[in-house]
Amino acid sequence: MRLRAAWLTCLAGLLLLACKGGFPPFVHLRSFDTITLTGSPTEIVALASDPEGSKTSIRFDWGDGEVSDWSGPTEPGEEAAMSHTWTEPDDYTVLAQARDVQGRTSDWVAWTEVRVLDSALVKWFKRIWGIAPDCPAVGPDGSVYVPAAGQIHAFGPDGNILWSTDRLYLSGAPVVGPDGSLYARRQYYGPDLLYALNPDGSVKWVDSLDCDVPPAVGSDGTVYLVADSSLYALNPDGTRRWVLSDTNNAEPVSPVIGPDGTIYFTCYPGILHAARPDGTLKWTLDLEGRIRGAMAVGPDGTVYLTSDWDLCAVGSDGTLKWTYVREYYGVSRPLVGPDGTVYCLSVGVHALSPDSGTRLWYTYIDEDSPAMPAINADTMLYLGSGQGLIHVLNPDGSLQAHVPTVEDAEHSPAAIGPDGTVYVAVKDMYLFALKGSAPLASGCWPKAHCDAGNTGCAAR
After folding, report:
1. What is the spatial distance between Cα 256 and Cα 260, in angstroms, rounded to a whole number?
2. Strands 342-345 and 348-352
């Protein structure tokens, strides 16, 4: 009886709607979010349908106090598109409403979220499916190279695509050598390989060495990589120059090259080696703790690295100079600024004296360790974080600005082009190009992998 009563009530409602002229149209929900820039017309597309199959029109509430006019009538299944220009950076919820030819209207429906970025801070951005959170490489001409979905993509400084490799299943930060050659690793869907690419993205040569981390490239084009528990040196044409194999379990940490050409690399469980450019061992230091993450080299040859979450400074002669201990969280990923200041990350950015390791200042970013910064010639720091922000810090660590990106997404280490443009990749989603104040700092270790080309080489 109750079921019959409910059915009769529903039938009565339908009859009442029919007497009033039928059902109103409705807007199909859309879940895609949009990012745009202030001052840039942005197209929003919607789809409405009418139960009676009649034509429909659509209008939008843009979320900034403006409501569009009705679109022209569209056939069933046909989309309606309109453009809008936002003038203030903010997050906006765009609503959509449909109307049929009889004038019946649907409810307003939350159609899409639009994040409007400040065009005074952001030059451009690109949606790149599968982009990896590895540090972009920048060539001398300003071309930007990023890994995404097993390929390397090359973009001009204006954001236009120049070329893409075939799907070679490449991963990790690409490296640009002094002659414009690119180096990238394949680690999936087959044997591990090191690819050398020509400046146009075509394959130059391939080596079968099993390398887990990006190589370093010297100022003469020599390629240094850790593979098979050894340090290898390859000529620019891919032939083997030498191998240093008596190092006992080389760690998967990228080798780095000091100002005098010394190659530094690590071995388990916490041994730092220094090798000469001819492949002979210079010295060895046991730090008695596992070496983690990237290394950096200062202008005086001091090597900075993390051992069991403490930052260690090792002189060019192989002696331990000082250790910076950060309780609870530990520190990682050192950098060196143009004045010699040492930076490391732990919940925020720590700035240290290069002479003693004493802390000069500290700026909190977030509980998840932020991505590695890049430092420009004005000693401004740019870094992304899991909060969905790219932070811009002044030389004293104070916040100058931040640019919203995508929340809860991994950000790459920052890179800086010759015109001062700052590049940050957001995992699986976007490459952002920000307006910076100056080119990358020189004569130091101002970003991940040292320089714009990710060569890991401080020798100029």
Report:
1. 12
2. antiparallel
- The pTM of this model reads 0.90
- Sheet strands (E) in 235-386: 240-244, 256-257, 263-267, 271-275, 281-286, 291-297, 303-307, 310-314, 320-324, 332-336, 342-345, 348-352, 359-364, 374-375, 381-385
Largest CA distance in the chain: 94
Residue 367: both structure tokens together: 């509980």
CA dist 432 → 120, 121, 419 (Å): 14, 11, 15
Cβ contacts of 60 within 8 Å, gap of 6 or more: 44, 46, 67, 68, 82, 84, 94, 95, 96, 97, 111
Task: Give the C-alpha separation, 316 to 255, whole Å.
Answer: 15
pLDDT tens sequence across 6-63? 343 333 333 334 444 567 888 876 657 889 999 999 999 988 888 888 899 999 999 9
Answer yes or no: are the C-beta atoms of 306 and 296 closer than 8 Å.
no
Domains of the chain: 18-117 (2.60.40.10), 122-434 (2.130.10.10)
